[in-house]
Amino acid sequence: xxxxxxxxxxxxxxxxxxxxxxxxxxxxxxxxxxxxxxxxxxxxxxxxxxxxxxxxxxxxxxxxxxxxxxxxxxxxxxxxxxxxx
Length: 85
Fold this sequence. Notes:
Blueprint: H1 2-83
């Protein structure tokens, strides 16, 4: 008699609840995977932007050093010319 009650309870309540829990867990897992995928894409995009900015900064610093070097060469050549007078 107790087994019949448990069997009825299983079919009526517990089985649909377990199915519902499994479906909700599957949906949650898919949402987690999609969120992690989005986060990985954003991380890669951010790293690429940072690398571009770093390259631009290096180029700007090289240009500034070259312009200072050119200016120093002009000053040096002018001072050498004045020194020979």
